[in-house]
Amino acid sequence: MHFSTTLTIFLSLAGALAAPISLDKKAATAAAGVLKVQTYDDFNVSGGVAGNALAEVNAAFPVDQTNLAGVAASDLAIIAKAAQVSEDAETGTGGFNDAIAAAGGTGTTAGTALQNGKIKNKVLKLQTDVLRIQIEVAQGNTGSQSELATQQAKLATNVALDKAAAGQSSTAITFSGSD
Ligand SMILES: *[C@@H]1O[C@H](CO)[C@@H](O)[C@H](O)[C@H]1NC(C)=O
Fold it and tell me: Where is the signal peptide, in residue numbers (predicted)?
């Protein structure tokens, strides 16, 4: 009786100790990144034509969206930085807003193409931000959840604008920074 009580306690202790060790091991093996740090000029999608921005962004950031909990910390950091740099490329000095103003506004041919590039850049900014939030939530940071619906709604609006301009030429800008 005494022996079996001791054995039971020992076995439950062993179980309690074994669990965190195997979890740590799993987290360590899941952390291999698939993304590389790139300059904005390399990861932007604003060139070419409008209409396919979302697919172009997903191709530029090919993390496994069916396993967001397993996305590497280094990939999450790159995605979060990409969202910030593309925000700067819209509103910062020398960004799309400045370029459109310099082209005489969205009523000119050059301004229209830049506006298409700006919308593609918004899809880049918002899809990387939505991905960031989804990864954070999947990895247990539930505090990020409240931002998700707002960013998803903005993303849907800009994906629709991009599709509405499908086939029109779209102008990229060169912008400093990397993700
Ligand atoms: C990204 O921006 C650069 C610099 O303006 C441009 O040459 C390139 O075509 C853009 N890339 C894509 C995929 O749109």
Answer: 1-18
